């Protein structure tokens, strides 16, 4: 899993997802002297050039970032702790918590659902989530019996149409919950995005990678 794919040894590929991770990584790249020359929101290209000919950025789904880095198709990438936890992160070096794309993993219910009472009564809860592992662990720790229903998106809908009693989802402003008459009843954990590095790249391309890692580290600490 740790081999670097057949790519020139003097090139670096950074894997990012569109949206908040791309946007919040840009200032860190700038701090490392790297400017991405095209906007993934308007460009259809999946490989974006930067001002450094040896550095390119690839745009992939958020959940696919660790896969590209694990196989060495990208040398490094940025992924949420939620994604790394849920999909495993073997063979990945995680040197820096970038403190970006901050949110929390929470339990939410419909406003009129009495969560505490359901727990007191030992009810079996139906939980809809994309984060099956984290949800299972959370309720097991609390000794609550659950049936978990795996969804791939729009978790907020599930309690509204009777698919589940509870959801486990990411919350940042809380606006999505509010707009759908849901309330947060428990915070499971804080989530931020991490820099992940292919272990072989770290050894073989250390000279090129290290200054970028250092700049990222400094920029993410000072932006606190
Ligand atoms: O959106 P898409 O299906 O393409 O992929 P994705 O959801 O995997 O990617 P993206 O870009 O939406 O999220 C990438 C990473 O950003 C996640 O893995 C998280 O680590 C992080 N992040 C930070 C978030 C949020 N904040 C967030 N608020 N990811 C998702 N959300 C969603 C949440 O699921 C909910 O539906 O936004 C909604 C709630 O937002 P508020 O502000 O209304 O509370
Ligand atoms: Mg999303």
Automatic annotation (TrEMBL):
Keywords: Amino-acid biosynthesis, ATP-binding, Cytoplasm, Glycosyltransferase, Histidine biosynthesis, Nucleotide-binding, Transferase. The keyword Electron transport does not apply. Pfam families: HisG. Pathway: Amino-acid biosynthesis; L-histidine biosynthesis; L-histidine from 5-phospho-alpha-D-ribose 1-diphosphate: step 1/9. It is found in: Cytoplasm. Residues 61-217 form the ATP phosphoribosyltransferase catalytic domain. It comes from the Bacteria. GO terms for biological process: L-histidine biosynthetic process. GO terms for molecular function: ATP binding; ATP phosphoribosyltransferase activity. One of its GO terms (cellular component) is cytoplasm. Its EC number is 2.4.2.17. It catalyses: 1-(5-phospho-beta-D-ribosyl)-ATP + diphosphate = 5-phospho-alpha-D-ribose 1-diphosphate + ATP. It is an enzyme of class 2 (transferase). Heteromultimer composed of HisG and HisZ subunits. Lacks the C-terminal regulatory region which is replaced by HisZ. Catalyzes the condensation of ATP and 5-phosphoribose 1-diphosphate to form N'-(5'-phosphoribosyl)-ATP (PR-ATP). Has a crucial role in the pathway because the rate of histidine biosynthesis seems to be controlled primarily by regulation of HisG enzymatic activity. Belongs to the ATP phosphoribosyltransferase family. Short subfamily. This is ATP phosphoribosyltransferase. The lineage of its organism: Bacteria, Pseudomonadati, Pseudomonadota, Betaproteobacteria, Burkholderiales.
